[in-house]
Amino acid sequence: MEQIKRCTECGRILPLSEFNKCRRNPDGLQDKCRECFSRYNKAHYAKNSARIKENVMRYKQENPQNVFQTRLKTCEKNPTMINAQKVVDEAIKAGIITRPHTCSGCGCSDKEHRIEAHHSDYSKPLDVVWLCTPCHRALDAKRRLREGKTPYGVHKEVNHGQC
Q1: DSSP conformational letter for 16
Q2: pTM, to two decimals
Q3: Where would I find the H helices in the chain?
């Protein structure tokens, strides 16, 4: 038989799966069901969004090392391009890596073009090659062609009816 619990907010009797975890409570679950807790959180954020955003910004500024570690763990679980880029951004803010002033591809300076981090493997977010924007785009275009895609990221064999 499935275990149940009463929500203190709406009074409904629901299965335990409808309650979030809470270590402080003796049963290890929140008193409000997920639906009620979600409603509470939305109302709380609507009333306090400016203060919450300010606190988040302050935390990020005061704890760059913690933010970096969190981003790194996220990227380890889900190594996507966006997550890898965020790890590099946070590593720069935390002083773990520095953005060079020259492109490792053509040698141009950051005064000529922006220097960007290129990942060949998103599961290794700190393993980057620093390239200017034109070199980065050219390297990505070569990779897309090797993968059988056009330089713009669309598969060659796909016809979208736009031609």
Answers
A1: G
A2: 0.71
A3: 34-62, 64-77, 81-93, 133-146
